[in-house]
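hey so i finally got around to running both of the ones u sent me last week. sorry it took forever, my laptop kept dying halfway thru and i had to restart like 3 times lol. anyway pasting them below in the order u listed, first the sequence line then the structure token line for each. didnt double check formatting much so if smth looks off just lmk and ill redo it

first one:
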Amino acid sequence: MQQTIGRRTFFKQLAGAATALAAPYIVPDTALGRSGHIAASERIGMGFIGMGGMGTGDLRAFLQKERAQVIAVCDVDDANLYQARDLVNAHYGTNDCLVFKDFRAVLLRQDIDAVCLALPDHWHALAAVAACRSRKDIYGEKPLAYSISEGRAIVDAVEKHGTVWQTGSQQRSEQNFRFACELVRNGYLGKVSTVRVGLPYGSSIRPGNFKPSPPPAGFDYDMWLGPAPEAPYCEGRCHWNFRWISDYAGGQLTDWAGHHIDIAQWGMNTESSAPIEIEGVGEWSDGREGLFDVMNGYEFTGRYAEGFTMIVADSRRHKMGVRFEGEEGWIHVDRGLIEANPSSLLRARIKPAEIHLCVSTDHHQNFLDCVLSRKKTVAPVQAAHHSIMVAHLGLAAIKLGRKLKWDNVRERFIDDAQADRLLSRSMRSPWQLS
């Protein structure tokens, strides 16, 4: 079954359904042919919105969780949509997975308790805020939002509606990252003066047809554009390549901020703040194919009120990962890697009375556990907001070519109207955050 729904109709129905949606829907033991070992009262009905590479990866992970019951999948592209449907039906041995082209129809279903959002960045805020209003808990892929103001809108909606939010910053569920951050938090390095963050360089543009053409049958291109500016369809613009076009994303810097900048913030206990002074340099893409215009190379420095400096740079300038530099040594952590000087730091054991960060060994399971317990996840929304904020601030300083000063309380630049204009964007009608 496919379903689309108008914007006005959706919000009218949403207002009437909010009360009913406040309590979790209980999926029966026999739902979709499943008679698993988890009690019905503990199974969580899920809808998946955005079935590209990340969305399908998340779907595969949640299908392996006994506490999750996949009810529906949603995508504007039939190729992604029906591939996801077939994956769900094959897993459960049924033909019951619902399919939708419009995410708002998913949010109106009372049998869906939680949604997984894996959309292009320019869609994150609209979908997330609507899901919060629909009383859905959310597993949201990083980065949190396309802009700082849209990130703030998501945070406010999560807090207003009591939403359980997990960001797809899965490094927080890996032991080496948690251990490195605990060493920093507990003073094993002494006072940390500098944190160096290395992120990927360049744009991983995938081949395709870059000439304007009619959208293929089954692809709702107008919905894919959503709040982004009107632009002619071409194959090379969409899906993976959206990351390298500034109307939809911010390149490797914003794509990876939710990973390594997030770990830097976690280790420094600055999950609710960002630099107060930022400056940097960057090299921009050459506008290849008339599309790709994000930065290839970048380096910026953020100075924190907490008394340290964070330097974020592409991997031609910095080694990938996060390096904490303190008075008594340093520690560097990346995927599958942790090293330190002195090396004895790696043999340290965090004592019972010391700071222990949230322990998660399975990022998707942590989300499900928190949906049931209503506790905070390992990657909460405030942390995600401030991690991507660091990247947005660096991007703004590089765009303007000058040092910027930031007010963390007001979430505005200090006496800088030109820079403040970079905090938000206008949305293509009829889309708006209201």
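and the second one:
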Amino acid sequence: MPVSLKDISEKVGINICSVSQVLNNHPRAKSLRPETREKILAAARELGYCKNEMAASMTKKHSRVLAFVTAEMGSVEYTGRIQNGVLDCASALDYTVTVHRLKNNSQHEIIRKILGWKAAGVIFHVADLSEISEISCALEQNGIPWGTVNLSNPRNIGVTSDDCAGVESAVELLFRKGHKKPVFLMSGNDSFEYIVRRKSGYIAGMKKYYLSGTPEVIHVSEPENEMTELLSTFIRQGVDAVICENDHIASVLIRKAGSAGIVVPEDISVIGFGNSIISQNISPRLTTVVQDFEAMGRETVRLLIEVIEQKNTTAENQQLHPVEIVERDSVYNYGKEII
């Protein structure tokens, strides 16, 4: 049978109320002598006591449980990295995380589970707030705070990377290395926030560094099928650099270029976004904008728990994480760099 508070109380000869206060980290436990608190904790360790979080939550408005909701689970690298950050920070702050996959028509089921667990808060990783409209409405009706990772969230907590600045820096890098005609290549839904921000960064960079140039945004629906023909068009039109929406598209471009006899970076330079594993393994290694997905996951949890525990109700809950460019081998340097 599981070890109970009564078992510990009988072993150390201390009343069960004091034992409960110590093991539940209650403020009143501080009134006990340090030796008494340590005696209780030592007995709990010796007997193998394990706190029943669900039982404890029955007497509280919420438990020390957070919910992480995503559409992608571990099928996409950056989702796994975000989840690692969420789990690491939650564990360090003594919270447990339940993980839920958002599928078609599953919002009602997720709401049921979140409320059943008496979750203290919820972290979402989705492309757009419209994907979680039912869940977010239910959370607000029940007074449960929530936050988003890699997506801004005007009503609650939102932690994102500074995508606009990242792509603008990519344009600056190409300008410094003497490129004349960089374009922006995307394949995602152009209404998604991260696409809008990256495209805006490209346009801002072009206006700042290429005063006589015209920003050119290219959309491909099926990169695997369209890239070879698109590369031929780029070469014919004098495009000498491509800034890609993400590392995946950049890797497809590099692979298709090799098959077509187009040399990266001598014939055309390529910059990605994300710093995924593929950016380091493809040849040539990809110059890319680095996003710290783990840090964004940790920061979202930290801000959420501050709201839950009412430690900081005036903090700015919209956070922009800085990004940086890591230079590898996919950008050509046309002579002396412009400083």
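quick thing i noticed on the 2nd:
Residues 87 and 128 are 22 Å apart (CA to CA).
anyway thats it, ttyl
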